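HOLO CASE FILE
Compound: zinc ion
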Amino acid sequence: MESLAQSGVPVVGLDQVLSVRGSVALTFDDGYRNFTDVALPMLEKLQFPATLFVVSGFCGRCNEWPDQLAGAVPRLPLLPWQELVALPPSVALGAHTVTHRDLRKLAQEDCEHELFDCREEIERRTGRPVRWLAYPYGASSPQLRSLAGRHFELAVGTTLAYVSNGSDRFDLPRIDAYYLRGERSLGQIFSGSSAAYLGVRRVLRAARKRALP
Ligand SMILES: [Zn+2]
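Model generated. Tokens follow.
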């Protein structure tokens, strides 16, 4: 994040990333406790806005979602409501559904519940507007994107790419910060070597997905 601050790349709110050329928006999924412990002090120090995507049915619990494969990811605590309420205004809250299911596996009415009730509960409990959605696992479909369009102003997925004029507003790509560490830091996000590297990772990831049963 310090390398990003030094790079001069503008860090903007998620709704501005489509209009401010060459900008970056920071998003954090699931609402882990380590967001306030680790990320927030740095965000505040550097005055970066960010979006935290919250799983409304799991606040104050752990990331043991119904679709989670046991042992696939570490068991981590999630922020309780009172800490979400106390977040500074520079952190926008977004919806990450009620139970973090893969929405493609659910019936239409269950998807409605996952999107709308998540938004409604976050707004009611925190008094903050919720205008954006992150699909669990980045998984969406044309039907889901159209449903998202009825409840949200934009939605993000996990396609590993830069946002461009041609990006789908209801499936905005994102670059996992995991890929931008060490020498290839966040501050280098728009460099030619990062773009080439991310392109390779995108192909590998797509190949891995195809290879899954
Ligand atoms: Zn998630």
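CASE NOTES: Residues 145 and 156 are 10 Å apart (CA to CA). The beta strands are 27-30, 50-54, 91-95, 132-134, 154-156.
CLOSED: yes
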